[in-house]
Here is the input.
Amino acid sequence: MSFRILVLTSSTGSGHDMRAKAFADWMETLYGNASEVHIEQIIENGSLLGRFGVWIYNTIQSYLPILHNLYFFIVEAFIFSHSGSVSFGGKYYRKLLKDFQPDLVFSVHDSTNRGYFEDARRILGEKVRCGTYCGEFSGGYGYSRNWVNTSADFFIARTSAAAEHAIRLGMPADRVSVFHKFLPPDAFKDPLSDEAKSASLQKLAFSEDRFTLFLATGGFGANHHLTYLDQLLSIADRLQVIVVCGRNEKIFKQVNEWSDTHPELRMHVEGYSRRMAEYLQLSNAVVTRGGANTTTEALHFGCPILYDSLGGIMPQEHCTVRYFVERGAARVLRKASDLHGILSGWSQFDAEYEQIRTQLSGLHAEEDPKDLIAGILGEDTSIVPN
Here is the structure.
């Protein structure tokens, strides 16, 4: 019989699902057929109300992120009511527990902790292990109190700052640990050699001596690519730009049309891309929303970050942006023209750019993902690695 793990997530943004998939990939890599991982988008699958809430979240993120500063408190209050048992979507979840009979319930989302662990133990008994990986970089505004279920067997935070906040919210300190880089196995392969980088740049029709800017986006395609591209024309002779549009077909078409109209700026344009790791290694800087996953990849590969705050910063993004900006390891774009102002210096690899790179490097931690997986599974598991 395989060791069964139920991973609770939701597609509010793409980061939670990416961490769920990263966990499944690590389990496959380390344990093969000895484990069975079921990833469940429990919020949207559990009820129509949950599905509507996820749609609202992603719509706001795409068009007016600042509204999340109101929506955040609505969701906070709603999920906090799940303290003893899951209400909305609870019937679906409890049936899933009975059918799948997991040995471990693992949450990677702030809204899938309260009530979910209590229901699991009520149905499966105290033998079931329950715990959380919290993807936030810091505490404070934007850190959901619903991350913390004090009955959890373990709580893994991304940083010590986030771990300390969880303890202040009541999580027992002896069950809290820290692991920064919850990324898939591919991210931990040997980095691109200088020869490989050179070959990749040539395939993109790029030069090795130009500053490479990466305009990134989450899987749902929330971005301001066209607005930022207009700012780059006056320094186009120093730049080359990789643009990824996510699952946003409209912006993908518009960016391609923009590129055709402005051949003076070297560009490579993609829709949804599985080459994020490669592009971050090729780039000298990345423009992105304050999503924790893209930030983690940028940190892992040492790519300086420019945070896109046009339309406002979402509460959850504050946790990420605050962590890096306070440590002098990133800059925030408050208005579109900021990009031109910053890149006028950065594109010449000025002192500020080198300082940002140094500060970012100082936040990097060498970690073995096997330690993360061991902490999630616990010492008493009977599962045996390959």
